[in-house]
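Q: Hi! First time doing this. I have a protein sequence and I read that you can turn it into a structure. Is that right? Here it is:
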Amino acid sequence: MTTAAAPSFDPCDPVAVAQALIRCPSVTPEDGGALGVLEAALAPLGFVCHRLRFEEEGTAPVDNLYARLGTEGPNFCFAGHTDVVPPGELKGWSIDPFAAEIHNGRLYGRGAVDMKGAIAAFVAAAARHVKAGGVPKGSISLLITGDEEGVAINGTRKVLDWLQAKGEKLDACVVGEPTNPKALGDMIKIGRRGSMTAFLTVHGAQGHVAYPHLADNPLPRLARMLAAITAEPLDAGTPHFQPSNLELTTIDVGNPAHNVIPAQGKATLNIRFNDLHSADTLLAWLRERLDGVGGSYELDHFVSGDSFLTPPGPLTELVADAAERVTGRRPEYSTTGGTSDARFIKNFCPVVEFGLVGQTMHKVDEHTALDDLTRLTDIYGEVLRNVFDRIG
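A: Yes, that's right. Below is the predicted 3D structure, encoded as structure tokens:
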């Protein structure tokens, strides 16, 4: 547990909080002072803050934060990440990516959308909620990592393991990822497709192209194997998920000679899969088709996350109702897009994602409208006003 000095900004003001966070150059895995900004805002409100550093051999250490207000259940959690992707070529930016400048009603800076702006909105909503009504009848918590944009090894999933070891329970969670395609209130993510990357190596025997009977060319087999796994769609989708897709990302031989049959050929593929599949069933499907071609091969893989779904229910309705009250539009429930740390949280409690408009995330001149920051704070405030009556 740590303590922090009083903030130099108003924690009820989401723009001021967002500016303070953006000014921390927290490019993965560096913290850059971002978690200190959050502690300074949350500790005076009564949040008990825990700074958690995790590392594994071969990976950089990562600082994380778990902060909780209250000791009773239910425990409503807001999750997010203060780490950001690199700004890229600075000459492409019209402003300093870590200056948090405001121009024409928009806040500019790396992380404004993904996702320091949403974290600032939640801090401001919590601060307003506490100042208006005191400590809630349940608990409010924040789970903030510095490892979402990186390898995601020393971040959210290790914080969750730490919580489990302490007997700490989460009852519901909103992740502040930028889920809205065009306007605030467009979309709530209620699940995500899984992601598996596979590495195929097909073996043969090197030889002279003029004497193919003395060699074993692996490339025709590699071509047939790739044709076998790409010939037909994996599925047609499900009620809440788009169809799974398998994409070849590279085919490599590394043969510099035009008159040599290579000893092996390699291919890499990625499968984004819905809830009709798991990593295990997909591996079995791949091997069945590769074995049908025959020959010597190796198949390695890693899984970024399995597919998951939070079915429409109390949590999804709570967030949708709040968004509709503030924006006047009912968000669509969606499972599109890539992966997020919700893939870890879903093993502990129901989780949905709702944040800012994502059009400029990871781009040069990333920015968010000040009005969207204000309205997102209002939406999170509506969630806090109703969550303890609707989530048991």
